[in-house]
Amino acid sequence: MDSTNVLLSVFFFLFFASFPVPATSSPPFFPAEALPTKSGYLPINPTTGSAIYFAFYEAQTPISSISKTPLLIWLQGGPGCSSMIGNFFELGPWRVNFHKKETDPVSLIPNTGSWNRRFGVLFLDNPIGTGFSIAATKDEIPKNQYSVSKYLFSAISSFIEQDITFKNRPIYITGESYAGKYVPSIGYYILKKNPKLPVDKKLNLAGVAIGNGLTDPITQVATHALNAYYSGLINERQKKEMEIAQLEAVELTKKGNWSEATNARSKVLNLLKNMTGLATLYDYTRKSPYNSELVAEFLSFKEVKRALGVNESMVFEECSDLVGEVLKDDVMKSMRYKVDYLVKNSKVLVYQGQFDLRDGVVSTEAWLKKVKWGEIERFLGADRKIWSVGDELAGYVQKWKSLSNAVVLGAGHLVPSDQALNSQAMIEDWVLEKGVFGDDNAEEKKPFGANDFGVW
Ligand SMILES: *[C@@H]1O[C@H](CO)[C@@H](O)[C@H](O)[C@H]1NC(C)=O
Ligand SMILES: *[C@@H]1O[C@H](CO)[C@@H](O)[C@H](O)[C@H]1NC(C)=O
Ligand SMILES: *[C@@H]1O[C@H](CO)[C@@H](O)[C@H](O)[C@H]1NC(C)=O
To answer: Are the CB atoms for 132 and 44 separated by under 8 Å?
Structure first.
């Protein structure tokens, strides 16, 4: 999630810092079975104490031996938003009761669409300074994707080293929104780094998945006007006004004026918000924004922090404005070239909730067309298959060899929150290459004569 009102957060920070509110309400219900399999810190700089916080949930009902069971790594966006949103609001095994009545206390309820049904899931608060992760100094917070990846590589390596059975498990890097930059970056970093490392230090990357991602901002920022116009949200005159604002962001990006380009993109999104009066651009069908602040409320209890292996004096923020500020010059830099590399050397899924106006279907399709890959024309010409889960329509999947693009119906920016079961079916089938994510050539490979018009 992109961070929002800086001034407001600064105000709240100062307010609560000077008048701490005593935690009078009783701690929320946190059943023992909702605890992570393990959680804690992965050192980044042992000298200063900077470290990445992790929460790991082993597969509930794996279909292979644990030492072969895939490991998914989840990275939240922002920049600076905590993966505990992914954990407790989207795809973790237990989520906050986000459909609760306002007067009900916050608690955890099991998520039948959890992504750790078949696979282990590791949530990382990335980069340092985010969520429960620790940045000893502001200077240590990464300013670009290279540094983000370097830290992630070190954190993932030390996690894998904790347990001998992790060593050969295939790793899938997944994430959402601004992780549209983190995910291809760490994937690319692993592929480039592995050949220089001894066998026991290599990371076993098997694929990357980007949900409603910001990956190629210069292409994506230019799609809002048309998308909103054809969605019936703005008129022709507003479309023109939006196009002028978009062009400004594109020009500043081309000039490499990164900070102003980031501001110009924010202006485009604010303009759209202002013109449409929508509750949130993350889902144009919603009457109110996602109430992910429930996660922050849940994580403010010292009992909960203790249970999760966090120092109870730590103050949890959904999104860190400081990390957002440090990465400001990174926002408009394209990571598409890393996807070019991953699609040739690994496997890539992009998926989008249909109702997202920020990093949605049209926005993603625009940059996918530009991927440099010998097979891209075959991909673009591939059938967009109707995808069902059980008997119900779930969305559409277009796949060619290592590249898959899924559109999830009835979902906004936070796909696993809105379509838990379908998101679970999607990630499982993509990893296991089943159903619509199965072999492209299955049809062609059918022996001749297996069809109705057989000659025998
Ligand atoms: C960036 O753009 C702004 C606004 O157009 C301009 O005032 C500023 O001088 C530019 N900075 C650089 C380094 O080009
Ligand atoms: C948003 O809309 C209001 C009128 O509804 C207008 O007064 C205001 O200037 C607009 N803000 C921006 C940033 O466009
Ligand atoms: C928690 O953090 C505080 C403040 O940094 C520190 O004094 C305390 O020793 C820490 N507690 C534990 C258990 O690490």
So the answer is: no
State residue 20's pLDDT score.
37
Question: 441 in ligand 3 pocket by Cβ < 6 Å?
Answer: no
Residue 269's CB is within 10 A of a number of other CB atoms, namely: 17
CA of 428 to the centre of ligand 2 (A): 44
Q: Enumerate the active-site residues.
A: 177, 356, 413
The residue extents of the domains of the chain are 6-215+301-443
The pair of three-digit structure tokens given for residue 222, joined into one six-digit string: 């230019």
Range with lowest mean pLDDT among 131-145, 308-322, 436-450: 436-450
Query: Any idea which fold 6-215+301-443 has?
Result: Rossmann fold (3.40.50)
Condensed to tens digits (0 to 9), the pLDDT of residues 165-188 reads 999 999 999 999 999 999 999 999
pLDDT at 453: 41
252-270 confidence digits (pLDDT tens): 999 999 999 999 999 999 9
Distance 23 CA to ligand 1 centre (A): 47
What token pair was written down for 443?
């049809």
Residue 27 is which amino acid?
Answer: P
Q: What is the mean pLDDT of the chain?
A: 91
List, in sequence order, every residue forming a beta bridge with 73; answer none if it has no partner: 122, 173
Question: Token digits for 45?
Answer: 């700089």
Cβ(263) to ligand 1 under 6 A? no
Q: What is the pLDDT of residue 454?
A: 38
The first and second tokens of residue 312, run together, are: 């109870």
- Show the DSSP H helices in 19-144 as ranges: 83-85
CA atoms within 13 A of residue 179's CA, in its CB half-sphere:
31
Name the residue among 308, 301, 295 with its Cα closest to residue 56.
308
With a cut of 80, say whether residue 12 has pLDDT above it: no
pLDDT in tens, 402-421: 999 999 999 999 999 999 99
Q: Which ligand is closest to the CA of 259, given by its number? A: 1
Q: Which of 369, 427, 376 is nearest to 402 (CA)?
A: 376
Which of 238, 244, 263, 274 has the most ligand 2 atoms within 8 A of CB, as the residue to mutate? Answer: 274
Please, where are the H alpha helices in 120-254? 145-161, 179-193, 217-220, 224-230, 236-254
